[in-house]
């Protein structure tokens, strides 16, 4: 995502990559947690993984929608508050914890709520005629705080990846093979998903 911002990529392509990056991160966490749960329980039911995945995603999206609706009600009053971002971050932690207690995906709940709140300036006027889009625009100070938080999180994230990187050639090969497979599968998937966007070869 930082690379797309610095590379002067077409806004439509950059936004598509940002949404994909955020959604795949959440889905990776959800699917991994479901698989770990299956390994712990030791069930042999074929339908259980799909039921568990559907339940976690459904609960996560539902709680995320409710949280976004609640945040949108108070968002105009917090617009000039210097602690707006801190309040939003605390709310997301509560949403994550509450969703986890309901056996849902906390990551999906936070993703759903954040997407709706982040795009409230364009969503709310369409749902509520007469609503002022300016009241739901993210405060510039919140964006600065968000950039700082993102920097620290990404820094720790990549440091941990470096520390956990295997030194065994066998493990590296086992990781490289599925990466190449996914890269090959991504080409037709992207072509299919963007066939109606009118992207040029350079943008693609």
Overview of this structure, please?
With 204 residues, this protein is mostly helical. It has two domains: 2-165, no CATH class; 168-204. Helices cover 76% and strands 0% of the residues. It contains eight helices and no strands. The protein has helices at 2-6, 11-41, 48-78, 84-101, 106-118, 120-127, 140-164, 169-193. It starts with a helix and ends in an 11-residue tail after the last helix.
Short description:
With 204 residues, the protein is an all-alpha fold.
Structural domains: how many: 2
The end-to-end distance, rounded to whole angstroms, is 16 Å
What series of H and E elements makes up the topology? HHHHHHHH
Radius of gyration based on Cα positions = 20 Å
Pick out the low-confidence regions. none
Main sheet makeup:
none
Strand composition percent: under 5%
Shape: globular
């Amino acid at each position: 995502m930082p690379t797309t911002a610095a590379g002067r990529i077409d806004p439509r392509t950059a936004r598509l990559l940002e949404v994909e990056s955020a959604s795949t991160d959440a889905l990776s966490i959800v699917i991994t947690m479901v698989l770990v749960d299956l390994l712990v329980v030791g069930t042999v039911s074929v339908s259980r993984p799909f039921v568990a995945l559907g339940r976690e995603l459904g609960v996560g999206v539902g709680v995320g929608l409710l949280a976004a609706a609640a945040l949108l009600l108070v968002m105009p009053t917090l617009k000039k508050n210097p602690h707006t971002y801190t309040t939003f971050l605390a709310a997301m932690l509560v949403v994550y914890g509450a969703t986890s207690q309901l056996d849902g995906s906390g990551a999906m709940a936070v993703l759903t709520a954040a997407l709706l709140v982040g795009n409230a300036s364009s969503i709310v006027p369409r749902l509520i005629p007469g609503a002022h889009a300016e009241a739901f625009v993210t405060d510039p100070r919140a964006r600065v705080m968000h950039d700082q938080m993102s920097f620290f999180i990404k820094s720790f994230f990549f440091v941990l990846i470096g520390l956990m990187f295997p030194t065994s050639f066998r493990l590296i090969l086992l990781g490289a093979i599925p990466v190449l497979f996914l890269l090959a599968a991504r080409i037709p998937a992207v072509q299919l998903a963007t066939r109606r966007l009118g992207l040029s070869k350079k943008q693609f």
